[in-house]
Amino acid sequence: MKPDINHQTLVEDLVREYPFASRFLSDRGLQCIICGEPVWGTLEELALDKNFTEQQISQLITDLKQAVSH
Question: Fewest C-beta in 10 Å: which of 11, 26, 36, 61?
Answer without folding.
Answer: 36
